[in-house]
């Protein structure tokens, strides 16, 4: 055993190395945004898991790496959730234990993997990674934040592939490349199938990139984003938003978007505020989309609602946020975990959920689908809005609790993926930055509005029609990955049965040896 291998015999040292290896992929996301790093970032983690002396140790390597990945990806939550950040990272990190076990199963250091096993690894391991991303994408577990394919948000060809299979296809390809790179590094005798897998992956991706239909632009809309910055108190914030919006007079805008929680009062209870917003709509000639975070007068509870206000007041178009942030906007099992509000920034009262997505018809013929905060991380929400006929996607966010961290940039980058997946332009408007706008291909329109920008910015946004393959066929990549895992399970089951049947019968107990008594004298 070499010196490195001897050093890793300590379980605690090995787990520490696994956590550090698992954290490496985060450098591919904003803020560092080293997109190319994603294609080799998993190699240390894979090499560690394949060197595990047992399958159980490989599973622990997966757990440790998953903990490192989740903690690094969500480290900016520490000031808000404190110890809960560590607990959630430890719980969700366990999802990678089966993935690492499969890494050892197909690429074990103690054996010489056959060509067939290496080729199978190029399909099975990305499929298992997608299964992990699918499970942790459940809203109750924090949603699909940090999906590996999302690291490619600024790569044009990758965005093109997202229109075919969504962010899931990008994750699959990134993991496949990492598996091939690991084989090239650690298994010289198996380099041929690894290179073949890379060639097939590149050819398939190139064909999909060339063949996938492109969105057709059939119009444009001038959309303004109002970003007031960090302002304490709903009244001061409203005054600042009103001041910035008045600067849009005479700029011929079609829609004005304020950020999440831009209004802190129910407009039905405060007709004076509704009147002021309507006055802005008349002065600018554009409807204003605000977001109300307040207790409703027509039903119990606090809602976060996107409300369109026109020249005559609220138009009646309203969307209530459906997917809430756990330990942020609500406390799961509050009767047991309600004490979390004393150690973090969780809401003192749970927000209520909306029941359905809606389309909003603004002036000048702009039909858009609103989403609030981390709902933009869910590919299915934007896909369903486009299926229903949205011409434009709009996300309203705040991120004011996470200024000067990687969170605003990570959030803003998601708009590029949702735009590319659906073939619709995406407007990401925040209170405090980063605000961003993307065209129907996921290409950024103008610079991001950073946390130091307190302004109202106008964008010429192309409106596209047509249906991307992802909108048409949905999460087909995830379904294919699950079929691969089902096929693997059936194959392993049949193999186990055959081994049991062909195993030699156990030997019976050894025959007793009877010792003859010596003949007696005289006989």
Task: Report what the structure shows.
The protein has 523 residues and is of the alpha/beta class. The protein folds into 2 domains: 3-213 and 476-499; 217-329 and 343-467, Carbon-nitrogen hydrolase (Nitrilase/N-carbamoyl-D-aminoacid amidohydrolase, 4-Layer Sandwich), CATH 3.60.110.10. The protein is 45% helix and 14% strand. It is built from 17 helices and 11 strands. The protein has helices at residues 3-7, 11-23, 43-50, 55-73, 78-81, 83-93, 97-107, 115-136, 156-186, 191-211, 234-246, 271-284, 334-337, 379-387, 407-422, 469-473, 476-502; strands at residues 216-227, 255-258, 287-295, 302-310, 313-320, 360-361, 367-372, 392-397, 426-430, 436-438, 455-465. Strands 5-4-3-2-1-11 form a 6-stranded mixed β-sheet. It has a 5-stranded mixed β-sheet with strand order 6-7-8-9-10, covered by helices on one side. Strand 8, helix 15 and strand 9 (426-430) form a beta-alpha-beta unit. The protein is elongated, with a radius of gyration of 28 Å. It starts with a helix and ends in a 21-residue tail after the last helix. Residues 516-523 have low confidence and may be disordered.
User: What structural class should be given to the helix and strand makeup?
Assistant: alpha/beta
Quantity of strands, as a count: 11
Beta-strand portion reads 5-15%
The poorly predicted ranges are 516-523
CATH domain topology of the largest domain: Nitrilase/N-carbamoyl-D-aminoacid amidohydrolase
Largest sheet: 6 strands, mixed
Give the helix level as a range of percent.
40-55%
Number of helices: 17
* Lateral strand order in the biggest sheet: 5-4-3-2-1-11
Query: What is the CATH architecture term of the largest domain?
Result: 4-Layer Sandwich
Q: Could you name the CATH class of the largest domain?
A: Alpha Beta
The CATH superfamily of the largest domain appears as: Carbon-nitrogen hydrolase
Topology pattern, helix = H, strand = E:
HHHHHHHHHHEHEHEEEHEEHEHEEEHH
Q: Give the terminus-to-terminus CA distance.
A: 68 Å
State the domain count. 2
Overall pLDDT confidence: 89
Radius of gyration using CA atoms only: 28 Å
Global outline: elongated
């Amino acid at each position: 055993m070499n010196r490195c291998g001897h050093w890793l015999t300590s379980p605690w040292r090995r787990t520490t190395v696994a956590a550090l290896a698992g954290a490496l992929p985060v450098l591919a996301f904003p803020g560092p945004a080293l997109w190319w790093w994603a294609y080799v970032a998993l190699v240390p983690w894979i090499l560690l898991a394949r060197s595990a002396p047992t399958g159980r140790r490989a599973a622990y390597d997966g757990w440790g790496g998953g903990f490192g990945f989740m903690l690094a990806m969500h480290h900016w939550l520490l000031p808000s959730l404190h110890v809960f950040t560590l607990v959630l990272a430890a719980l969700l990190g366990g999802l990678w234990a089966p993935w690492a076990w499969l890494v050892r199963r197909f690429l074990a250091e103690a054996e010489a993997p056959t060509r067939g096993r290496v080729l199978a690894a190029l399909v099975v391991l990305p499929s298992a990674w997608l299964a992990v991303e699918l499970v942790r994408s459940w809203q109750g577990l924090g949603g699909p934040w940090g999906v590996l394919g999302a690291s490619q948000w600024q790569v044009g060809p990758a965005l093109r592939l997202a229109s075919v299979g969504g962010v899931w296809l990008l994750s699959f390809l990134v993991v496949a490349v990492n598996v091939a790179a690991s084989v090239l590094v650690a298994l010289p005798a198996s380099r041929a199938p690894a290179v073949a897998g890379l060639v097939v992956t590149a050819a398939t991706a190139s064909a999909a990139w060339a063949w996938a239909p492109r969105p057709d632009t059939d119009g444009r809309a001038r959309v303004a984003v109002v970003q007031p910055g960090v302002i304490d108190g709903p009244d001061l914030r409203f005054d600042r938003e009103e001041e910035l919006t008045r600067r849009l007079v005479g700029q011929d805008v079609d829609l004005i978007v304020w950020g999440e929680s831009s209004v802190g009062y129910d407009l039905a209870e405060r007709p004076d505020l509704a009147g002021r917003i309507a006055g802005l709509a008349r002065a600018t000639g554009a409807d204003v989309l605000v977001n109300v975070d307040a207790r409703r007068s027509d039903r119990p509870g606090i809602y976060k609602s996107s409300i369109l206000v026109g020249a005559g007041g609220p138009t009646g178009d309203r969307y209530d946020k459906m997917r809430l942030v756990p330990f942020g906007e609500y406390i799961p099992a509050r009767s047991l975990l309600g004490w979390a509000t004393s150690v973090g920034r969780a809401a003192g009262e749970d927000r209520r959920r909306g029941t359905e997505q809606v389309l909003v018809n603004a002036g000048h013929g702009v039909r858009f689908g609103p989403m609030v905060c981390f709902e933009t991380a869910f590919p299915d929400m934007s896909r369903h809005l486009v299926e229903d006929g949205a011409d434009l996607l709009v996300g309203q966010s705040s991120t004011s609790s996470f200024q000067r961290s990687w969170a605003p940039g990570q959030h803003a980058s998601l708009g590029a993926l949702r735009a590319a997946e659906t073939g619709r332009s995406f407007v990401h408007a925040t209170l405090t930055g980063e605000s961003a706008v993307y065209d129907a291909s996921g290409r950024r329109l103008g610079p991001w509005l950073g946390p130091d920008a307190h302004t109202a910015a106008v964008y010429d946004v192309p409106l596209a029609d047509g249906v991307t393959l992802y909108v048409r066929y949905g999460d087909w990549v995830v379904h294919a990955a699950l079929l691969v895992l089902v096929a693997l399970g059936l194959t392993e089951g049949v193999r186990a049965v055959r081994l049991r049947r062909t195993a030699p019968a156990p030997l019976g107990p050894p025959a007793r040896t009877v010792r003859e008594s010596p003949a007696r004298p005289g006989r």
